Amino acid sequence: MIRLKLPIPPSVNHIYRRGRNGQVYKSASAREFQDAVTLAVYELWEREEIRVVQIPLRLQVRWVLTSRRRWDIDNGCKLLLDSLAACFHFDDNDVVDLRLTKVYEKGGVPRCEVALSNMKEKLAEMAKGEQD
Predict the structure, then answer these.
(1) Which domain holds residue 123?
(2) Could you tell me the CATH number of the domain that includes residue 113?
(3) pLDDT value, residue 131
(4) Pairing relationship of beta strands 16-18 and 24-26 according to DSSP bridges
(5) How high is the pLDDT of residue 107?
């Protein structure tokens, strides 16, 4: 299992911007988040804590927020999935189990805690259970 602690990504409404000529581009906050994911993954590779990500994947995401302001639980998923997929070279279609939780922590640091694991064995167990 791969575990990462990341900043909270910008909401889906703040990922893309439109230029004066009508061209769509990623916002600075979206690029900063992608850079943070890349750096966190690189650090794991440096410590040799990860080498290969096998598909299909289970992705567990825990949003740790410090205020109870309105924030949809699925709001940061798009950029998070795209960033992880770019770093680990998988397609977000390879995620077969996605679990999201949102917790509030007073006085803490807002963050996104990610656990990425292989679902191959779990799916085999489920298929075997259906056959019995």
Answers:
(1) 2-131
(2) 3.30.1330.70
(3) 67
(4) antiparallel
(5) 86
How many distinct structural domains can be found in the chain? 1
Tally DSSP H helices, then E strands, for the chain: 3, 6
The pLDDT-based confidence of 127 (bands split at 50, 70, 90) is: low
Q: What is the pLDDT of residues 36-73, one digit of tens each?
A: 999 999 998 888 766 667 788 999 999 999 988 877 88
> Cα separations (Å) of 111 from 7, 102, 122?
5, 10, 28
Longest dimension (CA), the chain: 61
Q: Is the pTM of this model over 0.70?
A: yes
- Token representation of residue 7: 């900043």
C-alpha 119: how far from its chain's center? 16
DSSP state of 71: -
Nearest to 116 by CA among 25, 36, 55: 55
For the chain, how big is the Rg over CA atoms in Å? 17
